[in-house]
Design goal:
2 domains; elongated; 8 strands; single chain; three-stranded antiparallel beta sheet; alpha+beta
């Protein structure tokens, strides 16, 4: 019968999803059910659109978790601090839009000065966003708006880009002094910074050499992969807790 009531276990089998997903769908309204005694039942007609692909099993964008809810920032910060110190780079974790999730580790004075300016900070965030949305799978170094080298490792969760681990704040080789001076003067004027102070801070920008490129890239992606594992383990724990909460609330 088309109006037949089926169990949550049958819903699982028909949709090929796990028990937690069924309860989440009941909770967020993607699936409607009725209570029969203490058990939930779903009308078979409820599944028609889902089975025909006319409705999505996916969580809508406004229901998706923010990276802060997926990634335990306090854990990431500690690992990031160690990675930045060992690699002698500046490092941070951002969301896919370039918004910082962590504090910058091992940051240089030159970048700190730029970040103190509201327009300078926005220019950095724009650079981080462009870097985050680079489609390449492997870390690939490129220049930020201030002329320093940066690369990123992708942090994915459930086949979706959740964040990026960024390493940078250095040169591969000694810059041309005239070009650097002109670039710094433009940065100072654009972001209303003291040019002499910015020039002075530039003397301490790290020069790592291109031989370090592959090493940093390798470890950068390893850190990003570690963050993915942390996110999955955290999501598993949160999912178990949410499942308990969903079952409890649905039982009332």
């Amino acid at each position: 019968m088309m109006d037949e009531l089926i169990t949550t276990k049958q819903v699982q089998d028909l949709l090929q999803v796990d028990r937690i997903t069924v309860y989440r769908m009941l909770k967020d309204g993607r699936l409607s059910g009725v209570k029969v005694g203490s058990q939930w039942r779903v009308r078979r007609t409820e599944l028609s659109d889902l089975l025909l692909g006319e409705r999505s099993l996916e969580v809508s964008p406004d229901q998706q978790l923010h990276p802060n809810e997926i990634l335990p920032v306090h854990c990431l910060q500690v690992i990031q601090d160690v990675f930045a110190e060992m690699s002698n780079v500046g490092s941070l974790t951002t969301d896919p839009d370039g918004q910082p999730l962590t504090e910058i580790s091992n940051s240089c004075e030159f970048c700190d000065l730029i970040l103190q300016s509201p327009s300078g900070r926005q220019a950095c965030i724009a650079s981080w966003k462009r870097l985050a949305q680079t489609p390449k799978s492997d870390p690939d170094f490129t220049q930020c708006h201030a002329g320093l080298q940066y690369a990123r490792g992708r942090i994915e969760f459930e086949d979706r880009l959740t964040g990026v681990q960024i390493a940078g704040q250095f040169y591969f080789s000694e810059p041309d002094k005239r070009e650097e001076r002109a670039r710094i003067q433009t940065l100072a004027e654009t972001h209303m910074l003291d040019p002499q102070r910015l020039h002075s801070a530039a003397q301490d920008i790290r020069i790592l050499g291109r031989e370090k490129q592959s090493q940093i890239s390798k470890w950068l992606q390893k850190v990003a992969n570690t963050f993915e594992i942390i996110a999955m383990e955290r999501a598993d724990l949160v999912g178990r807790l949410e499942n308990i909460a969903a079952i409890s609330s649905l039982g009332n």
